[in-house]
Design a protein that fits this description.
two-stranded antiparallel sheet; 6 helices; globular
Amino acid sequence: MPSTIKELYESVLASISKAEQYLLAYRDDQVLSSSTWTLFEQLEHLGITGRSTPPLIMKAHGGSDECPLNADGLRLFDLGAFPRGETDAPDFAMPKGAKGAKIAQSFKRMRKGFEDMEPLLGEMECSKGRSEHPRLGGLTAFQWWTFVDMHLRHHLEIIAEGLEKSPGQG
């Protein structure tokens, strides 16, 4: 698991690249044996959540430390990974049937949002400010980067596992 924001940043960008590869390599109706969502629904969800996260990281970087992690946040960071099947995505992050070009555009905006923060990574490393996550409470910039990395890896693992076991690849 990455231990610095710079390592998290690099892992996040590598995960975005992997998601983009899946988008180019498979059809929009590719089923996954490991999920109730199709491949493109998994990718659309990542695009939706990934676009919304950079502003929250920036808000934490410049914010106060008044809102602590809640019990769900403490549990997630103690586990170091998303437990499968325990919670549904919030309504705003549910897939809505986007096609490849729209998902690709989401990834492009997501990547740019993260890359724009690269000059601030060193400052973020020791930032104590927080911003509110709808389910986890207040996250520091480091916790946001960790959350994004865990979230991307979680969904990429579901995709990889589902493609391995699913018929009709490519």
